[in-house]
Amino acid sequence: MRKFLSVLAALALLFSVVQLPEAKAASAIKIVIDGQELVTDQAPVIVNGGYTMVPLRGIFEALGARVQWNQKAQTVTGIKGDTTIVLKLGAKTATINDKTVTLDAPARSIHGRTMVPIRFVSESLGDDVAWNKNTQSVLITTKSVKEVGAATSVTVSTVSQFGDGRDLQVSFTPPSDQTNVDSYRVLVVKAENAASFNLAKAQIVGSANYTSLSKYNPTQKTTLSASSRDVDGAVLRKNQAYKVFVLTVGNGTYALSASSVSISLSSSPTVNAATNVKIEDVGDYGDGRDLQVNFTKAANESNITGYRVMIVKSSLASNFDLAAANGMSSSYYTTVSKNSSVSTMSVTLNSSSRDTSGDSIRAGVAYTAFVLSLSSNTGTLAHGLSAGSASVTLGTSPQIPMITSVEDVDNNSDGRDLRVSFNKATDETRIGAYRVFVVRDYDYGSFNLTEANKLSSQYYYDVGRTGNSNYSVTLPSSMRDVKGQFIQNGVAYRIFVMGVSVNSNSYPNTLSGPSQTISLIDTGVTAVSYVSVSDVADSNSGKIFKCSSRKCTMRRKLASIGYSLSGKQVQVYSLCPWRPACRLPITRQ
């Protein structure tokens, strides 16, 4: 009997094992990623067959992948770098970049979380996954990802006039280290959307909406096709402004370039554009003489009469296009004649050169150069615009003073109201004195060192060297602006300070950048001084007091009497009744 009961108990135990649920909680199992335990809202479980199932979303997101769930299709998609994993609940297969793989056990949902076998994590993301039986731990070791660099000097130009992608040629400079680079993607973005286009958006652009280039392309230059689309999926068309980005694709990592300049497709053909435009800082004058522009002339000059070099503030370069170049005033570009004996053209600007905004070239501003090829017959071929150069910022000469502030400090309605503060030149050995110029705001863009050197002494104020690091100067009442007008209220001014050379034949004068804008304002009438008030009657009404000051002696009916805890306080007014000259407390006797 006892033996029978033992057999019966064994059978019951066996039955209970057979009836175990398919997924058994394994709360003791830990997930450890690179030595750090990952806590998820659904613990790993062990299923029949001994397979450990882990939560896909928790692990994928911890490893830097994005996870998307499609309720209708019951599919989960994981995306990390250039790897896309698609998995359907209940299926024993999944796709990794369209390649089918088999799972050790079907994916399943437990408490709303998709669970997958451990080995699938390793296969899908390429990281090392191991099982430590002793510690009951899933150990995941991520493979170090070598970052890739962004492409630079992205340029775009029109090479034909089809009115579609065939018109656009894109070139760029790849990163110096291409070891981990797989390919490049050329992304065309509508110009109005370019400011908000970023790396995250670039990564999710569909393959139909970019052009892929191998890293082994020797020139990294491509002409798009008639079917090329922008990143929104729209076919490229004329009369739409575009900017081009290049996405560097690595092994699990990306880098996005800066945008090209804006370009619009046109139905009018153009002459060949200049290429390889470069801009350099070659001097220390603080004006256009510091800028030298070099470029390779157009491949075909038979229909070109010459070139125009245009200097654009780099902050505006992305919106500078052929239409803007064609409409530019002759004061805002430098003309370069054709020269059949050389392939590379070079021009150094002059002290009066201006940028395309009409401002004089000056130190501390970033500039980009463009070259316009001039057509000999615009009825047949339009002018052609080059891509922009890399940006350059003119350096500051050690002989240039630096304005720190301009202030309205008085109410004289003339130069005495204006105080100018500036730091001395870093190197004063060549500086004999400083010279202050007041320029009306609407004229400051054309004021430069050449103009400053022309002015006679009645149009500036000289400040002697003191050896101090900082100078603070209040201008005289006779101060005039550079056009000869006396300084006055209500006019917007900018201030310049010149470093006057000890030997102008050997060392040029230098000119600071402009100050901030300042307008003088009269803050009100001036109060009388040395006011005394005496109580001269006992009417207890405050009607009669005697007022005297350095400026006046008079009897006046006071407007009011104020009271305070210390006694009565008399208000004495100047001729403008809204401005008290002073308040003197008196105590009645």
From TrEMBL:
Record domain Copper amine oxidase-like N-terminal: where: 32-140
Look up keyword RNA-binding and say if it applies.
no
Keywords, alphabetical: Signal
> What span is annotated as the signal peptide, if there is one?
1-25
* Origin superkingdom: Bacteria
Q: What is this protein called?
A: Copper amine oxidase N-terminal domain-containing protein
Question: Top-down, what is the taxonomic lineage of the species of origin?
Answer: Bacteria, Bacillati, Bacillota, Bacilli, Bacillales
